[in-house]
Every structure is written in C-alpha cells, then in structure tokens.
Specification:
The protein is mainly β and about 70 residues long. Helices cover about 5% and strands about 50% of the residues.
Length: about 70
C-alpha cells in the first residue's frame, strides 16, 4: 500500500508532506493456516530528516512474518 500524508501544520508552521510504502503478501497453507510476510516503510522515511518540527517519527524500514490459524 502507498500512504500519502499531506502537508500538516504545527503551531502555525508548515510540515512537509511525505509518502510511506508498505508491501505485504499472504498465502493459504491448507485449510486452517495463513502465512503473511511484509515490509513496512519500504522507502525508510525518516520524518526528522524532512523537518525537525515533527513530534513523532515513523519506524524505520521493518519486516514481519505471521502465521494465523483459523478454526
């Protein structure tokens, strides 16, 4: 998915827009299991690099794997 966050304002000052890209894939394993894997923040957006006025920061690029069981 692609998440675009438009211009924001903090205490009357403009913060720049940014885009975060996440990738996910999933596959069924039999009737009960689903395996998922993905990358969040693929482009490694760092808000503090864009503007020091950002109060929060995106996690750097990170990876995940999950296995779900449905009964």
């Amino acid at each position: 998915s692609v998440n675009y966050i438009g211009t924001q304002y903090y205490e009357g000052e403009e913060l720049p827009a940014y885009t975060r890209v996440d990738l996910t894939t999933a596959t069924r394993m039999g009737e009960s299991f689903t395996l998922r894997a993905g990358i969040k923040n693929l482009t490694d957006v760092n808000l503090k690099d864009k503007d020091e006025k950002f109060l929060s920061n995106e996690l750097g690029r990170n990876y995940y794997v999950s296995l779900n069981y449905a009964f």
